[in-house]
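INPUT
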Amino acid sequence: MTKEHANWSPYDNNGGTCVAIAGADYCVIAADTRMSTGYSILTRDYSKICKLADKSFMASSGFQADVKALQKVLSSRHLIYQHQHNKQMSCPAMAQLLSNTLYYKRFFPYYAFNVLGGLDSEGKGCVFTYDAVGSYERVGYSAQGSGATLITPFLDNQLKSPSPLLLPAKDAVTPLSEAEAVDLVKTCFASATERDIYTGDSVEIIILNANGVRRESEQLRKD
Amino acid sequence: MFRNQYDTDVTTWSPAGRLFQVEYDMEAVKQGSAAIGLRSKTHAVLACVNKANSELSSHQRKIFKVDDHIGVAIAGLTADGRVLSRYMRSECINYGYTYESPLPVGRLVVQLADKAQVCTQRSWKRPYGVGLLVAGLDESGAHLYYNCPSGNYFEYQAFAIGSRSQAAKTYLERKFESFLESSRDDLIKDALFAIRETLQGEKLTSTVCTVAVVGVGEAFNILDQATVQALINEFEISGEQAPATASVAEEAAGDAAADQGGAAAEEEAAPMDI
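OUTPUT
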């Protein structure tokens, strides 16, 4: 007596990997630009990173149609916030909004695995990591997507951040400098590209600090 | 003579075919402090007089940003204006969400007008007591519209509403032909001159007025006080006079007559029929 299974799914996985690292006065948000379906590549040049506010960038892997819809909803909500409060949303506020938006669709979720990166009101880097239904936590660094399992243990070792499991809970930002962190991100993606078929082509890196926003791009293996 | 019999609710016609409640509503707009708007091919400027009730209170906000390409100045019941601004913002956000492009101003003012009309045809509602000057940008350039509580709307080269707006209108009527080709800064200067006309001798400073601009390559923004004061100083220091201001005295007299005219009997054409 086997259960009948659906011959159609509303979801698809477009692959890809996202990473974010918080520093003392900067934040690095990065994602590869490959969009796939099954064993095929749809495009080598698709951005998974979205600017939600002056100091909040979201990188999302998973089903890009849901990611696009999620980005639009959050952008519209941010516009409403600006009209009502006459200012931009802070990163922690946006983090809570993202969580609520995801849980709103608890019974037909956005197939999106998100990492939110930005600067908090003190100018310190902050990274928030999510599951598909909105469970979130502020951390010092995070990776999501198809290459996450390859990248996370590497970051655990290399970032020299205090372990998130320590008690009392320690401030999680990495003591590394901005240049070192950006370099580390490039290394992460180069490594993940080697073994993960869904990661590659190029990596888009956003660096947020007191002076503003900077964008870097690095080519990756295309196989 | 028969006005009082047919003015109890908005759904009652007068024998002359007028809706007095709607006309009374437009009086409310005339009571509000002045707001003016003007436009060139590429820019639109809104300016308004900000009078606080007392020295202790803050000024009322009369200019609202609706979207990057649209702004609105109101005169009349500012609470009604706030509610309508919220509606306009919501419409712009929803249109942008669906079509990934800015809501054309012309569409927005029609929606506003239809919304206003509903309140003139329901016995349990009252019309919005606020006139709106909508300044916006679309593919064909800058536009200025006036939305009336009656549900009518018109496009204007330049217009003024609120108390003592006749003085500003007279100034704008003299100069409007040059506006189309005006530079952004000249347009702002003309707006400030028009505001000065409504102040009727009172000193024009940036504390009593607010100016906002929208244009090609410039998102709708309200100029800060320092910038406005600098512009005012510029033309006051140079002793520049708004052209032909000798007729200010005549305008003051004509202005008073016009205000009374609105309250006069039914010999005139109903304002919303114009």
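end of record. The mean pLDDT of chain A is 95.
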